[in-house]
Write a structure and sequence with these properties.
The chain is α+β, with helices and mostly antiparallel strands. The chain is built from ten helices and twelve strands. Among the domains are: 94 residues, Roll (Ubiquitin-like (UB roll)), CATH 3.10.20.740; 107 residues, 2-Layer Sandwich (Alpha-Beta Plaits); 61 residues, Phosphorylase Kinase, domain 1. Helix content is 18%, strand content 14%. Strands 2-1-5-3-4 form a five-stranded mixed beta sheet, sandwiched between helices. Strand 3 and strand 4 form a beta hairpin. It is globular and about 55 Å long. It starts with 34 loop residues before the first helix and ends in a 9-residue tail after the last helix. The N terminus is likely disordered. The structure holds iron/sulfur cluster (2 copies) and FE2/S2 (inorganic) cluster.
């Protein structure tokens, strides 16, 4: 994985992107590079009639200023300007050894370094590729928090998280044993008994059905906590449960800014938002986990409100949240007004016009209005992450009549 410069000031995407155009020449220090691309600011030079090495530009600028290649090509000294301009970087991926693993009895070969989940996605059957995940995302490093993706690995005592465990040569994996199904059901059941999962993806609802989740067997949910009460809890200071109700993380929605809300009644503590705000994308570190055990929660530093925190409102935490705990104020208001219509939503991909980085934007439109903006996780520029302008700055293109 290649990480971007953490000092990126516009909250720009690219937490995982390779150094791209504009990201530096890549030439070793003190090593002469092609003057055409550097001295002319990258502008194209006419290969046939362009100035010879060392000649002036002839455009009113300093006639003595060098334009075009001014040094001998260290790789091929006999190569002229025309040939050199045709030579671009050759991007080669790393050479990776293949390893053989068995997925439910079927042998497959995958590149060394692949996770079991990679193998299931790339080489597994449709059922194997549908392995449930909550804390995993294709544009993030494995977090390994929820354990809903577990599989059996032959010879291992404990179940392994498929999203994080790397394939090894000769490894035998079982994905649908009773032990696996029981463990996945327990994870989903305990979450559903204590967290409002009603706005999680349709996949989550389907998995709950397929694994026979019965959250009601823990009893009716306890009433929600008062605003801020969970945030003031201290590790080890728990009230003994009376067994009559199921403990929950229910609490009022936090609305302290104009852009997004934090509805921690829906938080499963998957840590995705923390890592998106940190080393996976944004490098702002405005939020982190606080507390222990059932009292663990996502918090700003000293539990201050978002406007007083380090948050720069890039919304990358919203983009990765799997349960709807984090969402735009606009989506929250529409849902509260029972005017949220995902079944009618269209998604149009375009390019952000705020700057020249070239981020792809997906405009989510309901009833003629943009309701959310995301970016594709596989887009080479953003890797699914945006800045505040791309994420929230769409009002100027909204034709509201
Ligand atoms: S919007 Fe979310 S990811 Fe972005 S800086 Fe604020 S807390 Fe971090
Ligand atoms: S707020 Fe969302 S992304 Fe963050 S830990 Fe909770 S469920 Fe995960
Ligand atoms: S998806 Fe693998 S541990 Fe959460």
């Amino acid at each position: 994985m290649t990480t971007s410069d953490s000092t990126d000031t516009h909250g720009a995407p690219g937490g995982k992107g390779p150094a791209g155009p504009g990201g530096g020449s890549g030439a070793p220090e003190g090593f002469p590079i092609d003057g055409a691309s550097e001295a002319s600011g990258g502008a194209a030079v006419d290969e046939e009639s362009g100035p010879a090495p060392g000649e002036g530009a002839g455009n009113g600028a300093d006639p003595g200023a060098p334009v075009g290649p001014t040094v001998v090509d260290p790789v091929a000294p006999g190569r002229g300007p025309a040939e050199r301009l045709q030579v671009g970087p050759v991007m080669l991926g790393g050479i990776r050894r293949m390893v053989g693993v068995t997925l439910d009895g079927t042998e497959v070969r995958v590149p060394e370094g692949s996770t079991i989940l990679d193998a299931l996605h790339d080489q597994g059957s449709p059922a194997q590729a549908d392995t449930p995940t909550l804390c995993w995302a294709p544009n993030m490093d494995p977090i390994n928090a929820c354990r809903v993706c577990v599989v059996e690995v032959e010879g291992a005592r404990a179940l392994a998280p498929s999203c994080a465990r790397k394939c090894e040569d000769g490894m035998a994996v079982t994905t649908d044993s009773e032990k696996v199904r029981h463990s996945r059901r327990m994870v989903l059941e305990l979450l559903a008994s204590s967290v409002d999962m009603s706005q999680a993806s349709t996949d989550v609802a389907r998995w709950m059905g397929e694994y026979g989740v019965d959250a009601a067997r823990y009893g009716p949910p306890a009433p929600p906590s008062a605003a801020g009460e969970r945030d003031r809890r201290h590790a080890g200071h728990h009230d003994a449960p009376d067994g009559a109700v199921a403990a929950t993380v229910g609490q009022p929605v936090k609305i302290d800014n104009d852009l997004y809300v934090r509805d921690y009644s829906r938080c499963i503590m998957c840590y995705k938002c923390v890592n998106a705000c940190g080393t996976d994308a944004q490098f702002t570190f405005a939020i982190s986990a606080a507390g222990r055990g059932f009292d663990a929660r996502i918090a700003t530093e000293y539990d201050v409100e978002l406007p007083d925190s380090a948050c720069v409102y890039c919304g990358n935490c919203i983009g990765v949240c799997p349960t709807g705990a984090l969402k735009s104020v606009r989506e929250h208001e529409l849902r509260e007004a029972e005017d949220w219509h995902p079944e009618e939503e269209t998604v149009t991909t375009t390019v952000c016009s705020f700057c020249g980085v070239g981020c792809n934007l997906e405009m989510h439109v309901q009833q003629g209005s943009i309701v959310n903006v995301t970016s594709p996780a596989d887009h080479s520029v953003t890797h699914g992450h945006l800045c505040i302008k791309g994420r929230f700055g769409f009002q100027h293109v909204q034709n509201l009549g």
